[in-house]
Amino acid sequence: MGVPNYPEPGVSRAATFSGWGMCVPQQVRSNAELEQMVSTSDEWIVSRTGIRERRIASDDESTFTLARDAAKQALQVADVHPNDIDLVVVATLTPEYGFPATASLVQDTLGATRAGAFDINAACAGFVYGVAVARSMIESGTHDTILLIGADTMSRVVDWTDRSTCVLFGDGAGAVVMQATDGPGGIFSTVLGSDGAGAPLLIQPAGGSHQPATVDTIESGAHYLQMNGREVYKFAVTATAEAARQTMQGTGLGPDDVDLFIPHQANLRIIKSAARGAGIPMERVFVNADRYGNTSAGSIPIALCEALEAGRIQAGDRVVMVGFGAGLAWAAAGIEWTAATVKLKAVTAAAASAG
Ligand code: UT7
After folding, report:
1. Which among 126, 177, 254, 282 has most CB atoms closer than 10 A?
2. Is 147 helix (H, G, I), strand (E, B) or coil?
3. pLDDT over threshold 90, residue 185
């Protein structure tokens, strides 16, 4: 696993987050509603996962609409015009179509006419993979302003008759604008990892080139997400803790130097075990899985937005985020929050209360 750390030789600028936004569907599906759909209970779901409710897309919502609305907010916070965007990246495992890329649709609707666009599929780790990619492009000097979105509509790939998976997931998107800064601050470390031997543990078997959609695949439910929960759980705890440790160690930091830990919001038990493994107390861990469940690539940017809006991140704070999921894949990023971005938050808050 590579741990490229900032500053690297020859790197004269860092990448930072200058804007953020999120969009979740209005429709809430509570554990009580799930009790009417499958053989489960609020008590089981809360005690095993910490999830109390999740958001579910309506018929006129989709990965594209959630991504678009999160992106518009992020551009507003960053005060960036669509013409200034060099690249649009959407991390998703539930794209609007098999192709073209959802990022191309977002690029078009925003009128980001100068921007390139592509999607990343690293499942629930996709957003943090995107952070690593965008960081490299910004640090290398080829791109100045990148719109990165994590968006998923998990309700469209979940089998709503399978109690072992349907209670876990929700829909949502989060977006960030990433820009160059000459410091101080910015992204100081990224970690990427994969263990493809675990691919069968979390998979949508049909609908791809291996098993194209047919009447048989639909009738057998092979187009739905399938998961070995116990095995993914074990992987998630170990990978999250290890990736968090590597993000810090690579830069000579320890758990006490982390002001806020933002893990993938899959399951409160995983979050608690991983935080313990990484040596970070729960007071410095952000959790919103209780309200949204696992929104896959949307999970970390949504949590980042809510942490910022709740005042949990201040100038100079070090934030570590870790994603994990199908692949099996994992990714971590460490960022030192800059004064400029905190000032932006104050400006947005003032504008919102004035208007
Ligand atoms: O982004 C990554 C996505 N995936 C994850 O993060 C998932 C990781 N895994 C997990 O979070 C946990 O493994 C689960 C929450 C999925 C399951 O928790 P668990 O403690 O590992 O439960 P289990 O799979 O060992 O199942 C225990 C029992 C089983 O019954 P038996 O065989 O012991 O009689 C299940 O059939 O709980 C049963 N069960 C349920 N009962 C009520 C499974 N799902 C449900 C349910 N309601 N929704």
Report:
1. 126
2. strand
3. no
